[in-house]
């Protein structure tokens, strides 16, 4: 039985603790905050993410609590035209083996946290800020800001895009600022006109911007998340934004999109950041996971799903008697898939943000695709049930 030190108590870190504990190992999760808590609003879970949750014993509860979405709906935000919809009922869950659901991020987190608290072999420690790690042939350890050292057979850095473990392991500096600002808020559903309460994840595309919205928390709230390419060069997170700022940034949108944006209050803003994919995110007995390993823009709606996939695959491979080899195998199995999704997320603005003739050509191309063709486009991503190089989507 091995002892695995997991740095970071977010979704990826907790999922990893469950995965390794299920194999009979011990896990200690170190969270830098003074309590285990998850910030944020909506999170989309495609079938691949729910397959991972099934492997952790939580899929049924997520399916029960999540909002089961009818379709991914693409709209032209300038003309108001409905361009295309990717249906998520009927053929989609039959083909991919699970539904597409949205949940409040806190709901998913609380399920993972409760499962960790109930699990034999999982220790949760808050107020533990990790500054560095060290290792030798027999063990690995992290150093806390307090000077305490926490040792184990392996160290997993699941400490997010600003990972202290990555800083030492990869050393690639600060995250890349994308030049895009996203604004977020949630609106009580009773404030949304009945005719606009669509059971869909909806994208409104405009020149240099787009706007996404969907129901969360069992349909009690509407999550609003518009993004704009405004050339921002410095990272910031959770900065309050006024309604006039948001309306000005998305003045090119019209009709229903503008009506929905007008519902928003208490906006906050983030500069979107990511990193270039790397081939190696292991160092002997130390490995990265989730956003620490492969941070990506949220436009593919796969960040949480990929962290869950990481955790499940790592748990399945983990061997306390051959730690460096199993961590290297985990890296090799995961790097191609996660890099492909990260690139897709970064390049997706080419689909969302064209103007004029390019937007018209995009609309024509998308509207010509059949339901099966649309499902084919996402099968490699949404259809995976095994999460390594040999994954064969439905």
What is the topology?
Blueprint: E1 3-7, H1 11-22, E2 26-30, E3 42-45, H2 47-55, H3 59-65, E4 67-68, E5 71-76, E6 82-87, H4 91-96, E7 101-104, H5 105-118, E8 122-125, E9 130-135, E10 140-144, E11 149-152, E12 154-157, H6 164-169, E13 176-188, E14 200-206, E15 209-216, E16 221-229, E17 239-241, H7 243-249, H8 255-262, E18 267-274, E19 282-283, E20 286-288, H9 303-317, H10 323-347, H11 349-352, H12 356-367, H13 371-382
Parallel strand pairs: 1-2, 1-12, 2-8, 5-14, 12-20
Antiparallel strand pairs: 3-7, 4-7, 5-6, 9-10, 10-11, 13-16, 13-18, 14-15, 15-16, 17-18, 19-20
Beta content comes to: 25-35%
Q: Structural class, from secondary structure content? A: alpha+beta
Strand order of the largest sheet: 6-5-14-15-16-13-18-17
CATH class category name: Alpha Beta
CATH hierarchy: architecture: 3-Layer(bba) Sandwich
Mean pLDDT: 95
Name of the CATH superfamily: FAD/NAD(P)-binding domain
- Percent of residues in helices: 25-40%
CATH T-level fold name? FAD/NAD(P)-binding domain
Uncertain segments: none
Q: Please compute the radius of gyration using only Cα atoms.
A: 21 Å
Count of the domains: 1
Largest sheet: 8 strands, mixed
Q: How many beta-strand segments?
A: 20
Count of individual helical segments: 13
Q: What is the distance, rounded to the nearest whole angstrom, between the alpha carbons of the first and last residues?
A: 36 Å
User: What is the molecular shape?
Assistant: globular
């Amino acid at each position: 039985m091995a002892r695995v030190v997991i740095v970071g108590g977010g979704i990826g870190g907790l999922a990893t603790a469950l995965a390794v504990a299920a194999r009979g190992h011990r896990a200690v999760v170190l969270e830098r905050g003074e309590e285990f808590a998850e910030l944020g609003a909506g999170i989309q879970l495609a079938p691949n993410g729910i397959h991972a949750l099934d492997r952790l014993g939580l899929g049924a509860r997520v399916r029960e609590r999540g909002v089961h979405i009818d379709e991914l709906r693409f709209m032209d935000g300038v003309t108001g035209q409905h361009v295309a919809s990717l249906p998520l009922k009927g053929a989609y869950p039959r083909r991919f083996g699970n539904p597409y659901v949205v949940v409040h991020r806190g709901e998913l987190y609380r399920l993972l946290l409760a499962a960790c608290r109930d699990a034999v072999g999982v220790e949760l420690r808050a107020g533990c800020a990790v500054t560095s790690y060290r290792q030798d042939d027999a063990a690995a350890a992290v150093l806390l800001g307090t000077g305490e050292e926490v040792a184990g057979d392996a160290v997993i850095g699941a400490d997010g895009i600003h990972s202290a473990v990555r800083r030492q392991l990869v050393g690639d500096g600060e995250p890349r600022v994308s030049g895009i600002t996203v604004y977020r808020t949630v609106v009580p559903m009773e404030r949304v006109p009945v005719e606009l309460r669509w059971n869909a994840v909806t994208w409104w595309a405009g020149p240099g911007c787009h706007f996404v919205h969907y129901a969360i928390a069992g349909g009690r709230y509407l999550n609003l998340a518009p993004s704009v390419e405004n050339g921002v060069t410095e990272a910031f997170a959770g900065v309050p934004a006024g309604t006039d700022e948001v309306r000005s940034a998305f003045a090119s949108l019209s009709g229903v999109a503008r009506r929905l944006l007008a519902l928003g209050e208490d906006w906050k803003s983030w500069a979107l950041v990511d990193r270039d994919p790397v081939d190696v995110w292991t160092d002997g007995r130390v490995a990265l996971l989730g956003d620490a390993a492969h941070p990506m823009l949220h436009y593919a709606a796969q960040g949480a799903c990929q962290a869950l996939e990481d955790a499940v695959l790592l748990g399945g491979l983990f061997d306390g008697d051959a730690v460096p080899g199993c961590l290297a195998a985990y890296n090799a199995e995961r790097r191609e898939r996660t890099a492909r999704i990260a690139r897709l997320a970064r390049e997706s603005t080419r689909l969302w943000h064209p103007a004029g003739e390019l937007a018209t050509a995009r609309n024509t191309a998308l509207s010509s695709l059949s339901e099966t063709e649309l499902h084919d486009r996402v099968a490699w991503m949404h259809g995976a049930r095994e999460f390594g190089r040999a994954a064969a989507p439905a």
